Amino acid sequence: MAKYEKPMVIANDELAEGVFAASGCYVVTVEKKQTNGEGRQDLRFTVRASHDANHTCSEQYLTINFTKPVEYRSSNGTIVSPADGSASSTLVIKFNYWNNPSDNIGMGDVIVFGDEDTDYTSASMTDNGKE
Predict the structure, then answer these.
(1) C-alpha angle with apex 6: 104 to 49, nearest 5 degrees?
(2) Which of 26, 31, 43, 54 is the most exposed place for a label (fewest CB within 10 A)?
(3) In this structure, is residue 91 part of a structural domain?
(4) Residues 60/78, Cβ–Cβ less than 8 Å
(5) Is residue 1 situated within a structural domain?
(6) Is the peptide bond before 7 cis (omega within 30 degrees of 0)?
(7) Nearest Cα residue to 20 out of 9, 33, 4
(8) What is the pLDDT along the chain (131 residues), one digit of tens a residue?
């Protein structure tokens, strides 16, 4: 098991609303794609990851943090926490993507219900739920 390194969040004005966070063997980027304006009730965040390791993996856990509590609606994965569907400022989502040591992974959109001014603050990913 790799030694855990606390993620570092870097703001970069050259990225399109992106937050870059690195932890373990993944680099995760998140982009806010849609607000809940114009009658919509959801917020949409596109998640991408790159796997930089010397192993393969078929199970990933995405932890994404928001500025305000949100309710999970959908993604290409399965919600792990909060399991009861309650509003939370932290979501953990399990994905089953087979990745090779240096894959770029399009995790798709994470769709949540929340206030229009809700944004994400950080995101990280681990193999098999561990660092």
Answers:
(1) 10
(2) 54
(3) yes
(4) no
(5) no
(6) no
(7) 9
(8) 455 555 555 555 554 445 444 446 889 999 998 766 666 778 999 999 988 888 888 888 999 999 999 999 999 999 999 999 899 999 999 998 888 878 888 888 999 998 888 999 999 998 875 54
Task: Report yes or no on whether pTM surpasses 0.70.
Answer: yes
Q: Which two tokens stand for residue 11?
A: 């703001």
Tokens of 126: 């681990």
Number of structural domains the chain divides into: 1
Q: Are the beta carbons of 1 and 131 closer than 8 angstroms?
A: yes
Which residue type does 46 have? T
Q: How far is the first Cα of the chain from the last one, in angstroms, to the nearest whole number?
A: 7
The answer to whether 49 and 107 have CB atoms below 8 angstroms apart is yes
Can you give the residue range of the structural domain that contains 113?
8-127
Distance CA 108, CA 11 (A): 22
Question: Is 12 in a helix, a strand, or coil?
Answer: coil
d(CA 47, CA 123): 9
CATH code for the domain in which residue 99 is found: 2.60.40.290
Paired tokens of 28:
């995760």
Phi, psi angle pair for 96, to nearest 5°: -120, 75
